[in-house]
Specification:
This protein has 7 helices and no strands. By secondary structure, it is mainly α. The protein binds protoporphyrin IX containing FE. It comes from Rugosimonospora africana.
Length: 133
């Protein structure tokens, strides 16, 4: 039996548990950012909630979930959107530290965890826009 409106393979988004998984990831990450003396001052808004929502919608869309991010924000162009902020090696390392902790709280199967983590590490390297300390 075939079906044309159902993908044969679940998306990575579905495989790791869908929206609740990405919500937990981003909530854990922002709990770390909220306490980080280097990263916290970088966020323009007093309330980290809207920034958390943008990151969550982006990751959901990237991994095959609903495309709400682009409906609301347009093309991601993430490097360009980070250009106003100093993202050097220290900021990247701090970002990855909180993200590593957040990924650990998900207790994903090893293969899924590696897939997610390799992407996040690569994306964080890509976002660096200055080598100055
Ligand atoms: C490497 C260190 C990084 C730092 C220091 C950093 C910092 C920031 C800051 C300060 C903002 C603005 C907050 C806001 O949304 O109002 C932002 C936005 C955002 N960041 Fe990052 N970021 C980093 C890496 C990443 C990575 C690796 C990703 C994706 C995997 C990412 C995804 C996003 C998204 C989706 C937004 C919202 C863009 C928008 O629609 O306006 N960031 N980031």
């Amino acid at each position: 039996m075939t079906s044309e409106d159902q993908p044969l393979e679940p998306t990575f988004y579905d495989a790791v548990g869908g929206e609740p998984t990405f919500r937990k990831l981003v909530d854990e990450f922002y709990a770390g950012v909220a306490e980080d003396p280097l990263l916290r001052p970088m966020y323009p808004e007093e309330d980290l909630g809207p920034a958390a929502e943008r990151l969550r919608m982006f990751l959901v869309q990237y991994w095959g979930g609903p495309g709400t991010y682009s409906q609301l924000r347009g093309h991601p162009r993430l490097r360009m959107r980070h250009a106003p902020f100093t993202v050097g090696p220290r900021q990247r390392d701090a970002w990855l530290l909180h993200m590593r902790h957040a990924v650990d709280t998900l207790n994903l199967p090893a293969e899924q965890e590696a897939t997610l983590w390799e992407y996040l590490e690569r994306a964080a390297m890509f976002m660096v826009n200055t080598m100055e300390e």
